[in-house]
Amino acid sequence: MKNKILILASSLLLAACVAPAPEAPTTSIKLIHSASNIDELLSYNAQLRKMPPAELGRELQRINAYPASPSNTVRRAMALSLTRDPIDLAKAEAQLWNVMGDNSVEAEKLKPLVQVLVGHYSDLRRVADNAEKSSVQLKEAQRKVDQLNDKLEALKNIERSLPAGGK
For residue 135, is pLDDT > 80? Predict the structure, then answer.
């Protein structure tokens, strides 16, 4: 009898181990799978980043000749963002906001990428603005240092021109 109880307890214990584990809670991140040309646009951006400035300018001219579409607007914004011109970066961001406001099927598929790019370009503009402010502050500080050095040099010249004190 003791063996039967031991066997029964062992089998119950094994059955508990074999039972499927409760499902783990799902995350709140939703993966978006869309049949758009996002991969092609990402590849295009990688190619743009490798271009020298002159070739990038020619590419911008080609893009401007493309027919209007959300993907061509994103291409144009990508190229504009790489010219290192703050005005072009603002134009790129504005182009992307146009895509965000577009309700076409193509634009809807591109919106996850466009949201990332808008955030990135906004950050780039903020960094560029801060760099410009820092540059202005540095120039102002350097100007003040130069003025103080000039005053110090003038005081040294006055000191040198004074007759030696009678000892």
Answer: yes
